[in-house]
Amino acid sequence: MKPKIVRSVEGLHRETANWRAKDYSYAIVPTMGALHEGHLQLVKTGLEHADRVIVSIFVNPRQFAASEDLSRYPRDEAGDLAKLSKAGAHLIYAPSLDQIYGENFSTTISLGGPAKANLEDKFRPQFFDGVATVVAKLFIQSGADYAMFGEKDYQQLQVVRFLARDLDMPIEVVGVPTVRDADGLALSSRNQYLGKVERQHATAIYKSLTQAADKIRQGVDLQTATRAAARSLTTLGFRVDYVTVRNAETLAVPLSHTDEPLRLFAAAWLGTTRLIDNIEV
Ligand code: PAF
């Protein structure tokens, strides 16, 4: 069935009140549109957790720096609707700007912990404040029971988990494994910026992470393994922002001989496209 589209908080509340009256549980999948298989996997997981699934589509200006790609960020509402219809989403919430940021909007959430881990926050200092603000609004506006977030943006997932926990938001944040192309490249709306040759090279980011994770499991020390991965990416023409290993929950730097749960992270530029990825160790 074709999902309904609502563009106002009022419209959203009308639909969710209906569901509550029927005692339905519901999940929200926050997105910025330009949907791919990774997003559809979030919808699928939402359907496994709840009776109804809302997908929000909102390109959030507050998480982009002036130098970033807000104006050219891919937008394809018609294509998104067709995909969501097939995926079985029940409701699309595509708010206009004023439904999220009303006149004189003046609230920011101050974040610490995983939002200050020296990963994405170091290179995109405005990013998590913008994400936390819009995500808090979407959680409150929707009143959803579950929220689905991809592990592809693992730092974002942890930031949102801590946000919901710290502010006692009555919502369960569910992390969903990264969907990859056959050659290992993690799906991302920004992959469409890659030229043909860049796209072929892009797979190296996942390969270098997998090799580093194997080495760490074999007992190679964390710094040696991550430095080798960064070196091999640089040799292949990437400009590396970071390759690093962190505690999988807090994202703090782990002790060198540790039995903490670990996660490997990489961010690197290929031409004008910035790619990020991460895997469990
Ligand atoms: O991951 C994204 O697409 C965005 O950061 C999110 C969570 C929808 C907030 O704008």
What is the residue-averaged pLDDT? 96
- Stated plainly, the CATH topology of the largest domain is called Rossmann fold
Structural class: alpha/beta
Number of domains: 2
Number of helices: 10
Reading the helices and strands in chain order gives EHEHEHEHHHEHEHHHEEE
Task: Output the radius of gyration.
Answer: 19 Å
Given this structure, which CATH class of the largest domain is correct?
Answer: Alpha Beta
User: What's the architecture of the largest domain, going by CATH?
Assistant: 3-Layer(aba) Sandwich
CATH superfamily of the largest domain: HUPs
Helix content: 25-40%
- Bound small molecules, which ones? pantoate
- Main sheet strand line-up: 1-4-3-2-5-6
- Span between termini: 41 Å
Query: What does the main sheet amount to?
Result: 6 strands, parallel
Unreliable stretches: none
